[in-house]
Amino acid sequence: MSSVRAEAIALRLPFEMGGPKPLFAGLPRQMEMLLIRVETDQGLVGWGEAFSLAIWPAVRSAFEQLVAPLVVGQDEADIAGISERLQRQFHILGRGGAAMYALSGLDIALWDLAGKRAGLPLHALLGHAHHSSLPVYASLMRYGDKDLVTRNTFEALSRGYRAIKLHEVRTDAVHAARAAIDASGTQSALMVDVNCPWTVAQSLVMADEFRDCDLLWLEEPVWPPEDFAGLAHVRQASSIQIAAGENNMSAPHFAQMLQAGAVDFAQPSVTKIGGITEYLKVMQLAAAHGTPLMPHSPYFGPGLLATLHLTALLADETMIEASFADLGASPLGDAIAVRDGRLQVPQGPGLGCDPDMAVVTRYRVA
Ligand SMILES: [Mg+2]
C-alpha cells in the first residue's frame, strides 16, 4: 500500500464573534483552515489539519514543496517512520513553524487513514476511551472592551458553556467577566490567556490584580514563551495556576517545561507539535510529571477531532478548547457542534468525520 496523492487545501470561512474582529499577527483576523488530504492506492482518503492563522500560505507551500513529494509513494501505514524521517530531514528549517505545522497536518491525516483501514475510531486504535463526550470551554477572542466581554460572557453561558476563557490583558475586562459569571449563578470557571506579553515582574503585578477573579488558570503571561524559569517563578511567587505549552516546539521542549516546574496545566497543540505521534509523547511526559493536560485546540477542523480522540483517552475528564465564534459554514458540521457545553467524541472510523466537500469547494482559497 502507498499514498498516491497528498495535498494541502486552504479554506477561508465566514465567521462572527459578537464584536469587531481583532488584529492577529498585525492582520485582521480571518478564519482560515488548512486541510491536509492524503489518498492511497486503495482509494482511502485521510484528512488532517495543519496550524494556519496568518501563516497558512507558508505552511501550504511547505507542504506542497517539501512534504508531499517525500510522502507520495511511501507506505502510508509507517506513520512513526515517516514522522521520524521527515523531522530529521526538516529540522534545519526550524523545529517550530511552517515545516513542522505541515508535518503535523500530515501525521493527523495518516492516523485518520490508519483508523479507517482498521475500521476503528482513532481513540480505539490508540487505547481505551474513558468518555463518550467531553466538556468544552468557550475560548473568547480578544474584544479589548469590557462591555463586549460582559455581553459575550453572558452569551456563552446562555449557550450552556460552564467555563470561559478570555484573551484580554486588561484588568477591567477580566473583572467584568467575573462579575457576569457571578451574576449568572452558574459557578462557571474563568481562565485568562494573555499570549506572552509581560516580564516576570509585570506578570506578578497582574497576577495580583487578578487575585479576586478566582481564575482557574492564567495562560502564557511571560515573554518570551521559552522562559520556563520565569514562568516557574510566577507560578511559585503568586497563588495563581499557570498554563502554557501551545508554543512549545517539540516533545523534548515539553520535557524542559515540565522539568522546570513551569506549569500547572500543559497545553500541547496537535496541529503544531508534530501531530498525533508527537502529542502522544507529550501525554506520556505530562503523566510522568503528574501534570494535567489541557489541550490547545481553537480549531474547527480535523485538529479539533484529533484532540477529542486524544483527550478521551485521559481518565480524568478534561476540558476541550473551542473558539467562541459562529462559522457561516462548517466543513465538519454537526461533528463539532457544541451542545450544552459538551462535544461528542467521534465514533466513526479514523477521526470519525470527513469534511463536507461542498463546503470545501465553496470556501477554498485559490
Ligand atoms: Mg493560548
What does it look like?
Strands 7, 8, 9, 10, 11, 12, 13 and 15 form an 8-stranded mixed beta sheet that branches. The protein folds into 2 domains: 117 residues, 2-Layer Sandwich (Enolase-like, domain 1), CATH 3.30.390; 234 residues, Alpha-Beta Barrel (TIM Barrel). The chain is globular and about 60 Å long. The chain has 366 residues and is an alpha/beta fold. Helix 5 runs parallel beside helix 6, helix 7 runs parallel beside helix 8 and helix 9 runs parallel beside helix 10. It contains 12 helices and 15 strands. The protein starts with a strand and ends with a helix. Bound molecules: magnesium ion (MG). The site of magnesium ion has 5 residues, from loops.
Tally of separate helices: 12
Mean pLDDT across residues: 96
User: Per CATH, which architecture of the largest domain?
Assistant: Alpha-Beta Barrel
The first-level CATH class name of the largest domain: Alpha Beta
Q: Which segments are poorly predicted (pLDDT under 50) over 5 or more consecutive residues? A: none
Could you tell me the strand content as a percent range?
Answer: 15-25%
- Rg calc: 20 Å
Q: How many runs of DSSP E, i.e. beta strands? A: 15
The ordered string of helix (H) and strand (E) elements is EEEEEEHHHHEHEHEHEHEHEHHEEEH
Beginning-to-end CA distance, first to last residue:
31 Å
Helix % is 25-40%
**CATH homologous superfamily descriptor of the largest domain:** Enolase-like C-terminal domain
Q: Ligands bound here?
A: magnesium ion
Count of all domains:
2
